[in-house]
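User: Please run a holo structure prediction.
Assistant: Happy to. Please share the sequence and the ligand.
User: Here you go; the ligand is adenosine-5'-diphosphate.
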Amino acid sequence: MGSIIEDELFSSSLIKNLHALDFDYIPGELPHRTEQLKKLALMFKPLFVNIAQNAYIRGPVGTGKTAITKYFCQSLVQIARKQGKILEYVHINCRKRSTNAMVLLGVLNHFDPRFPDRGFSVQEMLQVIRTHLQRKESQLLLVLDEVDALLKKDGSNLIYDLTRFNDETMRTATAVSVIMISQKDIFTGLEEAVLSTFKRSNVIILEKYTRHELYDIVRQRVDLAFHANTVLAESIDLIADIASESGDARFSIELLWKAGMYADEKHAKQVVPEHVRAAKAETYSVVTETKLKDLGKHQLLTLLAISKRLQKEDVAYATTGEVEKTYAITCEEYSDEARAHTMFWNYLKEIEHAGFIRVKPSGKGQVGKSQLISLPDIPAEVLRGKLEALLA
Ligand SMILES: Nc1ncnc2c1ncn2[C@@H]1O[C@H](COP(=O)(O)OP(=O)(O)O)[C@@H](O)[C@H]1O
Ligand SMILES: [Mg+2]
């Protein structure tokens, strides 16, 4: 009752819990992923008799790969604790930590937030992890999310080393289990030795969500995030329609969030289809906040440099040379060291690959030296604002 009165007193927004629209938020239930969660539970049963398990989860963007894995691992940790077992669960996003050393540092920071980020070799870091596990008599449950980024940069050595941990520690309390997640098929690129530790039966493939499934997912978020009766059923219908083209739950939740913000801005009493259409117009851009959040700091700084150039010059293109200079200055502003030229080129390639920028040869007899960069479908000023907010 109290909360109803409080709602009335303080409601100037249709949204009662913005947190539930966060990209990292995991709801208490995951509609249409029960079967997959059951399958995971079955796979990881052997952990309770100290036998490590490895699994691989694959599916297009927004199909719940990260969500079901986090949901499952967090539940598993709690259930294990009740049985007197300690599971150390570490979730690494390999797009943000794409080298062996950075992944291991992420694991070590779980045990010791002050572990130095320099001065240890990969083998030494593995040894320190082993010592932590032995001391705590615990198992490690390591999730390598977006693992293709790690494989691309450093190959599969680390995964081999990690899964081999168990040859020596098999059936002791310190087994290491690895869950790999990716959008693309990574198995074809893996060496036989690594492949054999990932059994065929331990693969989960997630399909794009159907319109009906997206409807249920959005409906759940409406209940979690909005005050009662503030979102028209037609609005949910429309969101499900729009998102069903991609089957991407993340896109559907982003649309709901944007539509809610838009309705609030208009001081509307309900989120109506017109607000959804406005949200779609804004979210349609390839440069969405969710995608930006997946970039590392220096990719963001590079993109910020591009948006600064294009804003200042009032022209369609910025050259790579100009952007690199602005990148260096921007790094300074954010008290970070500008990375070397080859790294800068890698950042450009990555953000081009992700669709944030278009790159074409300058055609002024400078081919190979300089290229022209443009933004596909977002005003530079808007992009700059988003990036500065993210980097703050
Ligand atoms: N079955 C589901 N029920 C509720 N929310 C979901 C479901 N699947 C995905 N989501 C939400 O959609 C968004 C994208 O899911 P995510 O797991 O990040 O996708 P992926 O990792 O496959 O790209 C997240 O906000 C997540 O909480
Ligand atoms: Mg994910």
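Residues 306 and 323 are 6 Å apart (CA to CA).
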